[in-house]
Amino acid sequence: MTPVRYGDLLGILAPETILEVVSLLILFVDLGFLRSAATATRMRVASLLGAAGAVVAILWLMTHAGAASVMGGALVADRMVAAAQASVLALTALVLLLGLRSRFSRNPGEYVALVLLATTGMMLVAAARDLLLIFVALELLSLSLYVLAAFAKFSASSSEAALKYYLFGGISAAFMLFGFSYLYGIAGTTYLPEIAAKLGQTPLAPITLVAMALVAVGLGFKVAAVPFHLWAPDAYYGAPAPVAALIASGSKVASFAVLIAVTAALAPTWGWTLTLIVMAAASIVVGNLSALVQTSVRRILACSAIAHAGYMLLGIAAHTEASNRAVMIYAITYALTTVGAFGVVAIVERSAGTDRLDAFAGLSAQRPLVAAALLVFLLSLAGIPPLVGFWVKFQLFAAVLGAPGASGWALAMVIVAIAGSAVSLYYYLQVLKRAYVTAATTDRIVQVSGFEQILLAAIAVAVVILGVAPGLMTGFFTAF
Fold first, then answer.
1. 130 has which bridge partners?
2. Alpha-carbon distances of 329 from 127, 245, 413, 470, rounded to whole Å
3. Alpha-carbon torsion (405, 409, 414, 420), positive or negative
4. For residue 429, how many other CB atoms are within 10 A of its CB?
5. How confident is the model at residue 201 (pLDDT cuts 50, 70, 90)?
6. Does residue 254 belong to any structural domain of this protein?
7. DSSP letter (8 states) at residue 441
8. Are 269 and 212 in contact (CB under 8 A)?
9. Is residue 170 a part of any domain in this protein?
10. Per-residue confidence at 446, pLDDT binned at 50, 70, 90?
11. pTM of the entire structure?
12. What range defines the domain where residue 352 resides?
């Protein structure tokens, strides 16, 4: 292995180092100076410091852009990795800012520090090109999210969500580690490009199929793809709203980034492509049909996430440069839209005490700006033009249809995906019907701060602008 130059290693890991330093600073300030302050004050200070740390890390990425690698290419920094990492940081900052008024924990410093640790794991996952580094980074991400899901200590649903998330995650991690060990045994290396070269030179063996199946279990869990999706509705429903938003956004971006890297190593084998196609089809069908019967908006978003994972898996199965870029753009814009949707859910839930569909009744009459933002988010998720959700789906499906050798399955799967999108419009409209048509059944007032309204409006405007000017997202990948 190439000797490690620690200066290069520190340079490539500078954004993650910034997050770790800020997380320690947050704990120092919260426990050392604000222990006796009101919980609301502590949450605001910790969240603002965390968001500021994420912004500083983004600025570092933008000013130190360039292709680099350390440890023989096990950890890389290129345009796609930098774009994924900057997106994860921006999403983390949004999650923290939308959670300024959260009241689910008496330990805000620890909460924000764990969010930054989870973000560090996401960034490492996106940059890793070695099986061992991928596994360690995924465990850092997963362990942080397990704890965060249970952070509402007095909520039974939060404890249940965390337990299910942990049990499913632990089992899937074991399967993935077994798969990685088999790949190492087959190729004699843990470096993904060398695994790809080895698999391309040898006939497909039964042990290779077993390895791919085990890896599919682990990574399928991370992206909530069928049949490894059962944790998602409970985790989205029970976890505190900011944590659910983080799981649904930044975690997805990082997981799809590493899935693209792993697919680059396993794509020489037809078995991996077939596995992705089957998982994609099942996710689209099961996710959209399951959402039709939900009465909780959080669970609707969870089922929707399963379906969107299916759309993105089609692009990964096509495995071209265009389809991989389309998948990352899709993941980033989907994550941005989902953070906004969870922000609205958190506001309604804080006032009504529930996220059931009826809790959204009369929202447009009381809070027209919040309802308008919800309208933009849900219609974008459904893929309605001119919002960004339509453009990214069009780009993704076009890349799948244009992939060499994909004509045998691509057209059928794109038809299934379009049909799934049509189904999704129905359950998104069920939420909007309550917000715009159904009258409120109680006299409760939806409490929302001016800052929250400005932030939601900014996210909604971004969703519209990215849809009207889709070249901005393409330019985003060339900015690093």
1. 191
2. 17, 18, 20, 10
3. negative
4. 15
5. confident
6. no
7. S
8. yes
9. no
10. confident
11. 0.94
12. 269-480
Q: Per the omega criterion (within 30 degrees of 0), is the bond before 15 cis?
A: no
**H-helix or E-strand spanning residue 75:** strand 75-77
- Backbone φ and ψ of 128, nearest 5°: -75, 140
Name the residue with tokens 């993105």: 312
pLDDT at position 427? 95
Helix, strand, coil percentages for the chain (3-state, nearest 5): 80, 0, 20
| φ, ψ (nearest 5 deg) of residue 350 | -65, -35
Q: What is the DSSP string of 286-304?
A: HHHHHHTT--BHHHHHHHH
The residues, any chain, with a CB within 8 Å of residue 70's CB and separated by 6 or more, are 4, 5, 8, 9, 12
Tell me the C-alpha distance between 480 and 79, whole Å. 5
What single-letter DSSP state applies at residue 104?
Answer: S
Q: What would the two tokens of residue 254 be?
A: 């990082």
pLDDT at residue 442, as a whole number: 74
> From CA 256, how far away is CA 361, in angstroms rounded?
35
Which amino acid appears at position 28 of this protein? Answer: F
Q: Are 74 and 116 in contact (CB under 8 A)?
A: no
Residue 463 lies in a domain: yes
| Structure token digits, residue 76 | 């890389």
The DSSP output letter for 358 is G
List alpha helices for 267-366, DSSP H.
270-291, 297-318, 321-352, 363-366
Let me know: does 161 contact 239? Beta carbons within 8 Å: yes
pLDDT recorded at residue 67? 66
Domain assignment present for 172: no
C-alpha dihedral (308, 313, 137, 67), degrees to nearest 10: -110
Say if CB 334 and CB 414 are below 8 A apart: no
Q: How many domains does the chain have?
A: 1
8 Å CB contact between 360 and 435: yes
Whether 342 and 301 have beta carbons less than 8 Å apart is answered as yes
Per-residue pLDDT band for 166 (boundaries 50, 70, 90) equals very high
Whole-angstrom distance, CA of residue 81 vs CA of residue 365:
43
Distances in Å between the Cα of 169 and the Cα atoms of 128, 162, 165, 277, 330 are 20, 10, 6, 23, 25
Work out the average pLDDT over 389-406.
Answer: 89
Residue with tokens 């900057």, as numbered in its chain: 86
Residue given tokens 């996401």 in the structure block = 122
